[in-house]
Write a structure and sequence with these properties.
Length: about 280
């Protein structure tokens, strides 16, 4: 049985380090990092995410505010709010909670967030910087994955990393971050054939698919490090990852559980980016 990577513990330690840095920044400059969360509509999952993010902000000494627009709010109303937040000196990070209602164009909105406050790292400027190897705001989930590997002293350089999933939020950016850390990276997706032959070559396997227990023990080799990004809600209300934990953990050297693996790191890295943005604002 491989060692379980305790994301909850690492996230807690990371948030404590951030809290110390936030206090130091305030003492030295008077600046308190601020995060604005924008929520459109009443998606219950989004409401929980925003609540958790705000709670984590409060614990780290980061100011946060929430802007709730009704599900019928127009795109121009939302863009006006984004413009005001872009110009608000108390706000260093703007978070647009996705998904947005269908009548609002997500790309339009995300590109109107100031790239200097885009703590999710979704703005094309920040995507470009990240791909070029000089990220301003590394995307939170991918950055959390790298931190987990680092905290557990898992070498990345020279290793074969296989990422299953090519989304803009997880698959592509985590592939880039692993590449910058000198892994040899293969990106797989729904048309990869035969998937199993590729996943079996992995020293580090990242599963970001969105399919419960998709990666099974026969798809990995002995000693693999497995990072499970998936968050899947089963009909019985339980959460499960993209990896068949029971089978795969027998072969893995390290493995992240779901819940308690990658998930908690995402919020921690959001706070980290907000602090970074506040620090960068002192240089402007
Ligand atoms: P997307 O649905 O955007 O992407 C899923 C990817 O998986 C796609 O690239 C898709 O390929 C690929 N895929 C789907 N089916 C297969 C298959 N049969 N074989 C190989 N590849 C396949 O999902 P996200 O990247 O946004 O999220 C992935 C998972 O991670 C979800 O469970 C999500 O909830 C979770 N998540 C967790 C976070 C956290 O904080 N822990 C943060 C963000 C997401 P193709 O491109 O060809 O369609």
């Amino acid at each position: 049985m491989g060692e379980i990577i305790d994301g909850k513990k690492v996230a807690k330690k990371t948030r404590e380090e951030i809290a110390r840095d936030v206090a130091k920044l305030k003492e030295e400059t008077g600046i308190v990092p601020g995060l604005a969360a924008v929520l459109v509509g009443d998606n219950p999952a989004s409401q929980i995410y925003v609540r958790n993010k705000r709670k984590a902000c409060a614990e780290a000494g980061i100011y946060s505010e929430e802007h709730n627009l009704s599900k019928n709010a127009s795109e121009s109303e939302l863009l006006e709010l984004v413009k005001n937040l872009n110009n608000d000196d108390n706000i260093h990070g703007i978070l647009i909670q996705l998904p947005l209602p269908e009548h609002i164009n997500e790309t339009t909105v995300l590109t109107r967030v100031s790239p200097l406050k885009d703590v999710d790292g979704f703005h094309p400027h920040n995507v470009g910087l990240m791909v070029a190897g000089n990220p301003r705001f590394p995307p939170c989930t991918p950055n959390g994955i790298i931190r987990l590997l680092d905290v557990y002293d898992i070498p990345i350089e020279g290793k074969r990393a296989v990422v299953v999933g090519r989304s803009n939020i997880v698959g592509k950016p985590v592939s880039m971050l692993l590449l910058h850390r000198h892994a040899t990276v293969t990106i797989c997706h729904s048309r990869t054939k035969p998937l199993k032959e590729v996943t079996k070559t992995a020293d580090i396997l990242v599963a970001a698919i969105g399919r419960p227990r998709f990666i099974t023990a026969d798809m990995v080799t002995e000693g693999v490090v497995v990072i499970d990004v998936g968050i899947n809600h089963l009909p019985d209300g339980k959460l499960t990852g993209d990896v068949d934990f029971e089978g795969v953990s027998e072969k893995a050297s390290y493995i992240t559980p779901v819940p308690g693996g990658v998930g908690p790191m995402t919020i921690a890295m959001l706070l980290w980016n907000t602090l970074r943005s506040a620090k960068l604002s002192t240089l402007a």
